[in-house]
Amino acid sequence: MTALLVAFAAVLLVAVLVSRLAGRTILSTAVLFLVAGFVLGSGVTDVLPLTPEDGVVGTLAELALFAVLFTDGMRAGWSDLRSAWRLPGRALALGMPLTLGVTAVLAHWLVGLPWAESLLVGAVLAPTDPVFAAALVGNEKVPQRLRHLLNVESGLNDGIALPFVVVLLAVASGSQELELGTLGTELAVGLVIGVVVPLVAVRLEATRFLAASRAYEPLTAVAIGLLVLGLGQATHGNLFLAAFAAGITTATVGPRQHEAFEEFGELVSELLKLAALLVFGALISPQFLAEIPFLGWVLALAVLVVARPVALFPSFLGTPLTVREQVAAAWFGPKGFASVVYGLLVLDAGIPAGEEIFHLVALTIVLSILLHSSTDVVVARWFDGPKETPAWHDGERAPTSAGGPPGGGASG
């Protein structure tokens, strides 16, 4: 644990120091943590000899995904969704199921997984993560509708994929009807907790006698999240669905609490994700990669370059998106942190094909982080407008008239 803490702190410091450079080049902090974990992990330096069975792996992954889903839900309040829902709705309602289906077909045909396990692979790899396309999503020169599409889609698809992962995992493990009923109860309890706790908390703060001070305002959402986490564990409700529902409910009924928490919450979520990426990298040893057959590598690449484009292009027929915007949206479906945790859930479930599925999922995520994090700046530059004429250039030419530049041409 001490080695992990020191390693994370050291890599975090390096990431902070190079963050400005990473923002304008193909360098990526996500790749930095992934590669650092790989180098420090088993089979290379053995500084962090972690295995999926280690308690710190599961605990950190669970906390990180809870924080991610809570903040994702915070970005998806109903008022925000109603303002521009059409394009993200197409991506989620049509593109996401098609992505799941195409991925399942590829998994079945290429590596021979049974259909239940193939669909499980599709569900685990369906969510996307905007963190690995930060230069695209954060670039104001990229059309707002494209940035909104990617943000809303990635904010919602983690939570939407969760029930599919849980149900398909139960099917793949051969659960009986009673166990599936228990599963439904866990999902329902998680949903109720995620809706009721924020509603009560926000209503209490709105009464005449209770109010948070300015300094404590960001902690309202923190308290809501921690209470949802504790109640979910105590009642055996599904923690992840509870977190997602709590985020959406808080953003919907408590816009002031949402605004106060937004920046702080994103930082906490980012720290947990980076720590989890370091641990995930430590699990990907050279031996781990060598165990994946050739067709497994083909599948991982096909998921990235075939499944999402095949699914999204028909989803955007008739929309105002340009071809360039559609290509950017189709390419930037990076497999993010939710897929890491869902893959660990599959491994922990002990199903016969669990280890094979985890290998395939982990490889796809690694390739996605490397490819998407190193191309977001390049693709974002597609949307740069024409370069402005330097100020010194204009200064050397006196206009022939008050109306424009020499020659009467149109102003650039």
TrEMBL record:
Domain Cation/H+ exchanger transmembrane, chain residue ranges per copy: 14-375
According to the record, the segments passing through the membrane are 55-71, 91-112, 118-138, 159-175, 187-204, 267-288, 294-317, 329-351, 357-379
Q: Which UniProt keywords apply?
A: Antiport, Cell membrane, Ion transport, Membrane, Transmembrane, Transmembrane helix, Transport
Membrane topology field: Multi-pass membrane protein
Pfam family membership, one: Na_H_Exchanger
- Region Disordered: start-end pairs: 390-412
Q: Per its record, how is this protein called by name?
A: Cation:proton antiporter
Recorded source organism is Pseudokineococcus basanitobsidens
